Amino acid sequence: SASSQRVRALTGQLRAAQGSSFANATSVVDEFPALRSIRMFAEREVAPIINQYWEKAEFPHQLLPKLGALGIGGCNQKGYGCSGHSLMSEGIIMMELARVDPSISLCFLVHDSLCMYTIGALGSEDQKRKYLPKLAAFEHVGCWAMTEPEWGSDAASLATTATQVEGGWRLDGAKRWIGVNAFILEPKTLPGWSVCKMENKTGMRVVQNGDITLEGVVVPESSRLPGATDFAAATSALAASRLVVAWQPVGMAMGIYDACLRYLCERTQFGAPLAALQINQEKLMRMLGTIQGMILMAWRVTRMAENNKATPGLASLTKATLTMRGREVASLGRELLGGNGIVHDFHVAKVFNDMEAVHTYEGTYEVNMLIAAREVTGIAAFKPRIQSTTNNSRSKL
Prior knowledge:
two-stranded antiparallel ribbon; 6 strands; globular
């Protein structure tokens, strides 16, 4: 159809002539030639079909074997059939997938950087041998449930309980967004487990988030992750993935820039391309300058992490900052496309909505900034200090 052809054009290769400066900004890919296959997969397999799935809020399961064939499962793991790429490679994989579709990149993030990482870091040898090979091949799909309906940013107040019983553990509670214990659950074999798909999302619609209810679910001791002995162990997985997710808004901003550049050069108004207008050129270059800075920050902090020099606070600062800048690029892109900026066929509107989800998950912007500030100042400012007041001490107008 004309619509799908337009989408393919918008998400195709960068123009060598008109996008040369932007191509230089993304030259990080040149250091990892094998990752070009990720870009080809995203453009040839994802771009032509993803809009229809976003509109229906469904996931294209036929892409999973193709993701497995890329050999990218288990970027942060060695052995067990995992790819064992570097942290930098994992970040750039996220960037390349997010450039075409943020939802697919998010599915990769949760599967690889949360589920697989948690099993690899906190699981037993038997658990690693049982689960990691099939997860690496995308034969199984991993999820990660921590947030609860009543507790989002205040993750330390989780209320789901794990009670030791004869033969294992009984789990009771609810999880959303798919001392602390952690368990590997295989839902198809669990009486008392139920899940309800979260409907009416306005962003990341391809991602199948759900509300999970656990009512007396009994699992054997072998399902418990032995390394998850406290809350710090659980949050370590989030800290590890936070830097990877920071690459996501970089890729999303790249895709928006690409779409806007093509649109401005191809669409004519008042007898000239939209790219001939000074105000449009200024906005386009503001986007480009922002993206350059985003890439450099992600690159520098990832290199520091590979050398064990990046702190959790720095990872949080990076995620928060790049998400903020990504929202700025998305807003400019929406302006540049005018009325078509709210039509998802033109890519920008879809990513504009998806960027709002990135702003919230893996820690909201504000919480990530507070994590970074606590590290810098030594003062935790998460919980407000509420002083008791009496009627006599209240201000009177």
